[in-house]
Specification:
The complex is a heterodimer. In chain A, about 50% of the residues lie in helices and about 20% in strands. Chain A is α+β, with helices and mostly antiparallel strands. In chain A, the strands form 4 sheets. Chain A has a 6-stranded mixed β-barrel. A two-stranded antiparallel sheet of chain A has the order 2-3. A two-stranded antiparallel sheet of chain A has the order 4-14. In chain A, a hairpin with a 2-residue loop joins strand 5 and strand 6. In chain A, about 45% of the residues are buried. Chain B contains 12 helices and 12 strands. The chains are: A alpha+beta, B alpha+beta.
Chain lengths: ~425, ~375
């Protein structure tokens, strides 16, 4: 009987349901879309923030103070400590290995460039552009300055790994354009008196907006040859996906309880990633490049919070739409309620029928809204980040539940009102 | 007569009007708060990005490349010439500007890089520095210095310790005011007052470069850089690419993200208000029938109802806007720590939107023009 009453109401008068259903569909679509975006915006924005480049710097622990001004290291060449190039593959074996998006070693050697009778003091920076690093598990990982210094722009092309090629910094190239043009060959020696020289083909002019503009960039192996330090590097830039710092990551890991320590270790905080890097590269000092890491953390947590507030606003808007239409349906159906009451229905029966109708509507509208919302989130993700948002089925029950709760809440007040209806005046049309 | 009827209409169905008003007020509050946010987000975000530090550098145009000796031989600029122009071009966008003159000075045990600068501006340039000891708030005391974390470790320095710097036979004895943890190259440097390096190097009035932190979109920064470049033709003004490029890209993405979310909610809220008003209007069918039976022309009757919902829209929109200003204030405080300033044009826009939505919702009433009063009264 109850089910038939509810069913009849849908069959007999579908038009009346359309308004409420439409409100539910639109409301739940927006709620689904905003929830989907809010849920993975942190990950996506964190990836975008990698356009700031490396956020971790690895240096030898026992290094002397670098004396570098404007890209020129004034430290004697034989001073200072080095890291082993061979162990770098271990970076991809740490717990958060998938969050290591790239790393680039640097080895700078003070050098003398000579070409066409010209002699210049400069720095040769050995690095990787696209280098396949051997990871201990047998795979290869391609990385280099493209990942850690994405703003370095090269005119011409980058050097090939292990080839006798180089790219010249824009500021250096501008001083003698005829000598450092693309396609020219330059000779580099460790010092003027040194006999051994390297002949490198200039393949491009690099502009970095920083000290490297005054240097010559070459494959790491060339710099190692020149400085006679095979397999050594001076510093390592790492770009890692991290989670914004919170109260847990601010604490000293040594003082954490075992449970908190596990939680800290298993969260991609910048502090836990640098701790894990230190574990696989002993004897190093791993530091967050704070300028980058702090900015990223601050903005990420702010945007996250903002999006949650906006999502709440979307939910409030959806609730409002549904509640308003639910209220009007009850008011519109005063006559029906009057008749039901006149033939002996109790207030709870009337309320039960109405609520059952609303819940049914909420489930149907919520399901359609969910599908529409997934489409909306897809478009949003595509247009904002270039890749569509992933489908989250977990959200379906959440959205359906929300729709039901909103519809029930929206009907409660008018139903309480309906409880006071006297059948007689209503039937008389008053 | 018209206004009296209007007044009666508004008073007679108070219960339903409250529902409509609640919808209008909350809709207007959400819309105006989000619009305020949308228009202020760029300013807020560019301020946040200033923690990235300097984004503009002024350096001598020609770097002197010397061969042979390892002595510091970079080109220099005249401090007064640069800063007189900088002061002229100074605007609100400049967060901080500091001159730098670097030398490699000897301490008792080893050489260190000494950066001569204005300590108060330098710390403003790099808000992410963690300083143990005291922050430097003024330029008056030239005999203090800040030391980088690595320098402090290697030279075993702590705040209040003495540091002696030697360069080309001249000596300066300074007090360590604080230890800087910068997470970068600055950890290997000693920061002293500009006068100290100028005295040590014998380069009075000379500086090596100027770093500026400019608040604004990448476009503002480029325009400012161009303005400076025309004012200072002898030197090179260049944006720091890492900062400006990444900032521009990120800013564009975040703005688009917030904009699309706001747009979605605007549409949703607008629809919600529309639906409520439409429902309200449809309830007026009987009144329309009665008025028509009494001889009212349909345009007059519809005009009356439109005036009713219009008044409702205006009142609801106005009240909602006030709530929206409070909401955006709270949002700004909660998210960015500073309030989002309200804009008057948004006030007007929201009220207009609300009135528009209310009127649009009542428009179906026009269709009642061809309704026969008798049919409505019979309850069909």
């Amino acid at each position: 009987m109850f089910a038939r009453l509810v069913g009849e109401s849908f069959v007999r008068n579908p038009r009346r349901k359309i308004l409420t259903a439409a409100a539910l569909v639109v409301g739940m679509a927006v709620a689904t879309a905003t929830l989907t975006v809010a849920l993975d915006v942190g990950d996506r924005l964190a990836r975008e923030f990698r356009s700031l480049g490396a956020n971790l710097l690895v240096t030898p622990e026992s290094d002397t103070l670098p004396l570098e001004i404007g890209g020129v290291d004034y430290r004697p060449v034989d001073e200072g400590a080095y890291l082993d190039e061979a162990s770098l593959g271990k970076l991809k074996t740490i717990f958060w290995r998938h969050n290591i998006l790239g790393f680039t070693p640097l080895l700078d050697v003070p050098a003398v460039v000579s070409a066409d009778g010209l002699k210049l003091n400069t720095t040769l920076v050995g690095t990787w552009y696209e280098h396949a690093v051997l990871v201990p598990d047998g795979t290869k990982f391609k990385t280099g300055t493209g990942a850690t210094h994405p703003w370095w722009k090269v005119q011409g092309r980058w050097f090939h790994d292990d080839a006798h090629e180089c790219v010249v910094g824009a500021a250096l190239a501008a001083t003698h354009p005829s000598v450092f043009g693309v396609g020219k060959t330059i000779n580099i020696a460790k010092s003027e008196s040194e006999g051994q020289t390297l002949s490198l083909l200039v393949t491009g002019i690099v502009s970095t907006g920083d000290a490297e503009d005054k240097a010559v960039l070459a494959p790491l192996s060339m710099a190692q040859n020149l400085s006679r330090r095979p397999g050594k590097i001076r510093q390592l830039f790492v770009s890692a996906l991290t989670k914004p710092a919170d109260s847990l990551s601010e604490r000293d890991p040594k003082t954490l309880s075992a449970k908190d320590y596990d939680r800290w270790f298993c969260s991609p905080y910048i502090s836990s990633i640098s701790f894990q890097i230190r574990q696989v590269l002993p004897g190093t000092d791993v530091r967050a490049i704070r300028r980058v890491a702090d900015t990223e953390g601050r903005i990420l947590s702010r945007i996250g919070l903002l999006l949650w507030i906006v999502t709440l606003a979307a939910l409030a808007g959806a609730a409002l739409a549904v509640a308003a239409t639910a209220a009007t349906t009850v008011l519109e159906r005063r006559d029906e309620i009057g008749i039901m009451k006149a033939i002996g229905a109790t207030n709870s029966t009337v309320a039960g029928i109405f609520l059952a109708e609303q819940v049914l509507l909420a489930l149907i509208g919520g399901a359609i809204g969910f599908c529409a919302g997934v489409g909306l989130a897809w478009i949003l993700g595509e247009s904002v980040f270039g890749t569509p948002s992933s489908l989250r089925v977990v959200l379906l029950p959440v959205v359906l539940g929300l729709a039901a709760i909103i519809a029930i809440l929206g009907s409660l007040i008018p139903l309480r009102h309906a409880a006071h209806f006297q059948p007689a005046p209503i039937l008389r049309g008053e | 007569m018209f206004t009296r009827l209007l007044w009666k209409l508004l008073r007679a169905s108070r219960g339903r009007l409250v529902v409509a008003l609640v919808a209008l007020v909350s809709g207007a509050a959400v819309i105006s708060a989000l619009l305020n946010l949308q228009f202020d987000i760029e300013r807020k975000l560019t301020q946040e990005f200033r923690t990235l530090g300097a984004n503009l550098v002024i350096a001598p145009a020609q770097e002197v490349q010397a061969t042979g000796s390892g002595a510091y031989s970079a080109a220099l600029m005249n401090q007064d010439a640069v800063f007189s122009q900088l002061e002229k071009a100074r605007s609100l966008e400049v967060v901080a500007a500091a001159p730098y003159l670097y030398i490699v000075a000897q301490t008792k045990t080893r050489p260190v890089i000494v950066a001569g600068t204005w300590l108060d501006e330098a710390t403003k340039l790099a808000p992410t520095w963690k300083i143990t000891g005291s922050r430097v708030g003024s330029r008056e005391d030239v005999m203090i210095c800040l030391v980088g974390r690595n320098v402090a470790q290697q030279l075993k320095l702590a705040p209040k310790a003495q540091l002696e710097l030697n360069y080309l036979g001249r000596t300066a004895r300074l007090t360590v005011a604080g230890v800087v943890d910068a997470g970068g190259a600055e950890d290997n440097q000693v920061f002293v007052d500009l006068h100290v390096t100028q005295y040590l190097a014998g380069l009075t009035g000379q500086i090596g470069l100027v770093q500026l932190s400019i608040n604004g979109t990448p476009k503002t920064i480029t325009t400012y850089a161009q303005r400076l470049a025309t004012a200072l033709p002898d030197v090179e003004v260049r944006p720091i690419r890492q900062v400006t490029e990444a900032e521009g890209e990120l800013l564009a993405r975040i703005r688009l993200l917030i904009f699309s979310m706001v747009l979605l909610i605007l549409v949703l809220t607008g629809l919600c208000v529309l639906a409520t008003m439409a429902a309200l209007a449809m309830e007026r069918r009987e009144d329309v029938g009665l008025m028509k039976a009494l001889g009212g022309s349909i345009s007059r009757i519809v005009g009356l109802f439109l005036a009713e919902v219009g008044v409702l829209g205006a009142v609801g929109g106005f009240a909602g806007c006030i709530a929206g200003v409070a909401l955006s204030h709270w949002m700004g405080q909660r998210v960015f720590g500073t309030a989002i300033s309200a804009r008057w044009e948004i006030f007007a826009l929201t009220v207009a939107l609300m009135v528009g939505a209310a009127l649009a919702g009542a428009l179906p009433l026009r269709r009642l023009g061809n309704v026969k009063p008798a049919v409505i009264f019979r309850g069909e």
